[in-house]
Amino acid sequence: MARRLRSVGRFAIGICVLLLVVVMQLHITPNLVQAQTTRQPPPANAKLSSAYGMWTPSQFDTCPKSLHDTYWVYGPDDTVYPTWHPSSDVNPATGQTCTYGHEHGRNPAESRLASWTVPFGYVNEEFARTNSGKTRHEDHVGHKIEFKNDVTVGLPGGGTGPVCQILTKLHQGTHSADAFTNNMHELFYYVSCNNGVQMRWRGMHLFGAAGGFEGTCEGFHNVGTFTPDTSPTLENESLRRIPDKGCLTEAIEQAKQQPYYASDAYYSNYREDWSTGFRHGLYKNGDQYLDHWGQVGFDKGYTKLFNIDSGAYFKVMGPSRYFEPTKPNNLGRRIDMCFIPELAALQGDCINVNNLIKQGIPVTWDHPRSPFKGTYRTVHFDWVTISNNTSNEKWYSNAAGTVIRPQPDASQGITIEQIISRTPFAMYYFGNRESDFNGRGVHAPN
User: Fold this and answer.
1) Which residue would you say has higher pLDDT here, 252 or 42?
2) Which pLDDT belongs to residue 387?
3) Structure pTM?
4) What is the widest separation between alpha-carbon atoms in the chain?
5) Considering only CA atoms, which of 167, 173, 235 is closest in space to residue 201?
6) Which strands form 404-405's sheet, in the order they lie side by side?
7) Candidate from 24-28, 251-255, 328-332, 350-354 with smallest mean pLDDT
């Protein structure tokens, strides 16, 4: 009997060791993902999206395009899309570390919502399919991911609620002229709590006005042509605030009058703030539906089907661009400010840039040694409200989320599945998260 017990004990210990190894493996997923060099391209017969294969190396990037294109996922439409990858990798052909030159924020494999895939460009693709002659294909490098795990959320009036997970993916390019005019940007918003509350939303979110943006120092700029030319404007609930030439003028004037405080204007103004006004809902009166973003409809006799909203905002410090109407495409480069006599000696960034140039290193706006690359970001998840008193958890919307129905209708562009849990009312506070995603070889455009 004693011998049998010893055998059972050894077997139990062996099982425990095996389980411990498995658990350890699960907890080092980020390292496994980044070290993986045997990834495969999509199958030869796979359907490829317009977003897949979009990136090509620049003069500063050392990873081959073929390696970059091994990071992909299937979208809900069984089409191949690019997804998150590290900023540097190991090239299996050489065994050496190489760089991609851009980053996509936090690795979603580390999120508790990792099973909810993040196909970059999926909603862009759906928009093109269901809007004849209209396209909105955003560049590859602007897709950014952020999340928080195991958040004990706050409740209105104080106290704490359930433990939740949250993940966002926003296309927030801060290097090109795109956001000067285009207000439609791909946003994924995922929430899941241990009490069953869930939301999985994918759409082209409307950040303020189409054709213009809110300048940080000079107010609204009406720039002109935007894509798609049918994009609606979301009034008073969201915006894109981007530094403009007035911020440069302010910094120079302050440098002349109060040199000691010149860097305050320089640094405080040169950031981008995008607020979502993320608000979607659906009301019904008989066979009539009312799609909207706000709390309206009750006075019209409509019954609320569901409502979701969040006041999230996305902040980028150190973007490579600012709005300069005297430049081609209205693109001013922040690094050029370092060569203006009044600003050249400002603490930190510009001193470092000019020291590199004195050493014979030509630091251009897209050079890896430039400090202006948009890697330092804050996502404020804020309050998230979910209300769905129906028996339906699946809904379908058009690309912009401005038309929502219980069933898909491709003829009306209503093809994107949205998940809203059957939740009478939940209002949770998730707070914010800030990080600097600068990595080896990262540079603008990023």
Assistant:
1) 42
2) 95
3) 0.88
4) 92
5) 167
6) 288-292, 278-285, 303-310, 383-388, 426-429, 143-154, 160-171, 184-193, 198-206, 416-420, 394-397, 404-405
7) 24-28
